[in-house]
Design goal:
The chain is built from 19 helices and no strands. With 490 residues, it is mainly alpha-helical. The radius of gyration is 23 Å and the shape is globular. The two termini are 44 Å apart.
Length: 490
């Protein structure tokens, strides 16, 4: 094995050591246990206090030591994510074997396509509606169901390719676990995502608890970055066509529509969820359009060629930034730029949403920060630049520069229609998290408020509308590919 792999594995080894030895570390340093409430550690007016000698990362609103909770959050993350990833692989092998049956294959294929299309957050909402209380068990089941489609598809890969796929699944599971905590689905266990959201709520109240937000945010981001850094050194699996066909998209739309109508059709919960749909569309639409136009513009530019230390530095910065979950990005934007609680007051913050028809100017101003956070999450480094082989072939054929540009832009536009269902479901999950952070009255906020209040009917309505909108968009993309991409009609 290449010695560089051992170097890249060191951060993960350190994370494992911290997770296993967290109780010992806390005892040696003389820190309190993660659940120890100490109101004497709070400052004037019972406000949380920042880093000090007694508490290296400060304390939260109950006087609990943030450093201790970050250490024990590592135990939770490592144990749950590794167990869920291993179980996902075992179940994937069983499903792959069952798919060899002539009668079982269509059913399994349909269920996997449905799971691939549904946002991970929405799967968690449905499990809560089914009666599973917020807990690590619920999060583990979400990670299992969310990871099955990719795991079943990658079973026949080679050893190192399978290892890379497993590492990528671990990185995704860490991000999904953090997102689920924003919807109060983690129960009372110490976890990084719950700490981040609790800090965001405190910041929304005007308390500058930056340390409370920074410590778990760094733990999540650096853990994901470490996993992805090791995965990048392993051979990449072969590229497969992960687009949803028109027939499959239509089957998903019909199936979800029948289920939604059978469960909620004509009920007040369904109507209430529909009333929140416009706010969710407002959050998603502009960032998706802007990012798509940006991808088209970048396709016309020559690739950026950096070498040596500049390339390594840029890669490291991008690795960390692209590993930051959208909830953390939204939280820091709120802490930094919101006009009510930000350090650099500039834009309207949480709870300032106004309807488009009521006040168009206020509507746009209130959504700038959510749009920035969601755009950051949508942007991907893969496939943005032009394909130089197509350029060389076009120039060899004697095409002019203007025709090369039009051809490149047309191909890039067609490629944007080939958005995989897994990527689309991730964007929907991002949007739901952003809604919760900025208190936009969309489907995400409705779902979280209903979970806290214990109203499963409202959560069912929000989950149903989210699922229906997601699979309907998949159908529209598949239809657009059929109309505009000549390769689909062959």
């Amino acid at each position: 094995m290449d010695s560089r792999l051992y170097l890249r594995a060191l951060p993960l080894v350190l994370l494992l050591i911290v997770a296993v030895a967290a109780p010992l570390i806390v005892t040696i340093l003389g820190l309190p246990q993660p659940g120890t409430v100490n109101f004497h550690a709070l400052g004037p007016l019972s406000l949380p206090v920042g880093p000090s000698g007694a508490h290296p990362f400060g304390v939260d609103n109950l006087g609990r030591d943030v450093f201790t909770r970050v250490l024990f959050g590592a135990r939770t993350a490592v144990a749950l994510v590794l167990a869920a990833t291993a179980l996902t692989g075992a179940v994937a092998y069983l499903l792959r074997a069952a798919a060899g049956n002539r009668y079982g294959a269509p059913v399994i294929r349909y269920l996997l396509e449905l799971l691939d299309a549904l946002p991970a957050v929405m799967i968690g909402l449905l499990l809560w509606v089914a009666g599973i209380q917020p807990s690590l068990l619920l999060i583990g089941l979400v990670l299992l169901l969310d990871g099955l489609p990719a795991s079943v598809a990658g079973i026949r890969q080679r050893d190192l390719q399978s290892a890379r796929a497993a590492l990528e699944l671990i990185a995704r599971n860490l991000a999904v676990m953090a997102a689920l905590a924003f919807f109060a689905l983690g129960g009372g266990a110490v976890n990084w995502g719950g700490m981040v959201f609790a800090a965001i709520v405190t910041i929304r109240e005007g308390i500058n608890a930056w340390w409370w937000l920074l410590a778990p945010a760094l733990a999540i981001t650096l853990s994901i970055a470490a996993v992805r850094w090791l995965a990048a050194a392993l051979p990449a699996p072969p590229v497969t066509d992960s687009r949803t066909s028109l027939r499959a998209a239509l089957a998903l739309v019909i199936g979800v529509l029948v289920l939604c109508w059978a469960a909620l059709g004509g009920t007040p919960a369904f109507s209430a969820a529909l009333a929140h749909l416009s706010a969710s569309v407002s959050v998603v639409l502009i960032p998706v359009v802007v990012c798509a136009l940006g991808a088209l513009a970048l396709a016309a530019l020559p690739p950026l060629r950096l070498r040596g230390r500049a390339a390594a530095a840029l890669s490291a910065v991008w690795l960390v930034l692209s590993s930051t979950p959208v909830g953390i990005v939204a939280g820091f934007l709120l802490w930094l730029l919101s006009s009510d609680v930000g350090r650099l007051p500039w834009l309207p913050g949480a709870g300032s949403y106004a309807g488009l028809t009521t006040a168009p100017g206020s509507w746009a101003d209130a959504l700038i920060l959510p749009w920035l956070a969601l755009s950051f999450a949508i942007v991907s480094p893969r496939g943005v630049g032009p394909d130089r082989r197509l350029d060389l072939a076009a120039r060899a054929a004697g095409l002019q520069r203007s025709r090369i540009f039009r051809r490149r832009s047309r191909l890039r536009a067609v490629d944007l229609l080939a958005l995989p269902s897994r990527r689309l479901s991730a964007i929907v999950s991002f949007a739901l998290v952003v809604e919760v952070v900025f208190e936009v009255p969309g489907l995400g906020s409705l779902a979280r408020d209903s979970i806290v209040a214990g109203h499963p009917a409202a959560v069912s309505g929000a989950a149903a509308i989210t699922a229906l909108a997601t699979v309907a968009l998949l159908f529209v993309l598949a239809l657009a590919r059929l109309l505009f991409d000549p390769r689909e009609r062959r």
